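Hi support team,

I submitted a single chain yesterday and got back a structure, but I'm not sure I'm reading the token output correctly. Could someone confirm the output below corresponds to the sequence I sent? I've pasted both exactly as they appear in my results page.

Thanks,
R.
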Amino acid sequence: MRTVLKTAPTSEPISLAELKLHLRLDSETLAGNLTPYTSLASGSHAVQDNYTVHVGTGIDVLGKEAIVYLRPVNNGTGGTNDTRIEESDSLSTGYAAWTGGAFTQVTEANDTVIQEIQYTGTKRYIRTASKVLVAACEFGADVIVNSAVTADDDNLTDLITEARELVENITRRQLLTATWYAYLDEFPDVNFIKLPFGNLASVTSVKYKDSDGTETTMAVTTDYLVETNGEGIGRIVLPDGASWPTDELYPSNPITIEFVCGWAATASVPKNIKRAVKLAAEDSYYHGDRNEILRPAIMNLLTNYRLWEEF
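Hi R., thanks for writing in. Yes, this is the structure output for that exact sequence:
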């Protein structure tokens, strides 16, 4: 089996801020590190029984620490304000409520209490969205971003990717969602095909070419079944009574399997794998000077996550 990466992961198992904290790097002052942004301007916001009118401006928080502040001032008689944090990979579209981002409902009893929630999600942009009931409420929402930078930021970002790829090579896993092609020269003698990298999410297609180059797309359920098998090895399996095609196959990469694998979110990556990525990035940052200490630690952290089967 030969594999080719089609779509690389769009996120990393650790953020730039996490690596900086691990390496204890910060060359800025507190005032220089913290940058305030207004998501929703303070003012009187009218009754709206939805989260689509009183929405704030998206703030870029990728690779940074961020705290969202809800600043209520005054609720009208009987008025309530429900505010939540929303996240998206796009500045202008695709926002959805972030789990854990709901502020305590603001009523007349607590309409002078400032609330804060630290954003710990993985999306690039966040904003607030608010629903106001019964009477207009005065409030606003700010985002404080810890955007501490050093001259090494670009280098550190590259080291995170390098460290992730090292851990992937050691474990033989795809850590975060990516799309791959797998090429076979022939169908197996057994009733299954094992797919590499673990954490199989889905099989997009199974196609084969006959000797004339005519391509056929096999039908899921009828021609094959998909076993995702959790964090283990995923498989394509023949249904009961089915068999692999017996056509004479094309001489070059006749069978193509497109599949998606990897943990769907950074938060789902096991903590020991994240720690290994940090140590691998640390080793590269110090040009391998700590290899004798860090490499055994990395291997120990990854022991339980290595995939040993051959493909």
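A quick pointer for reading it: Residues 153-171 form the longest helix (19 residues). Let us know if anything else looks off.

Best,
Support desk
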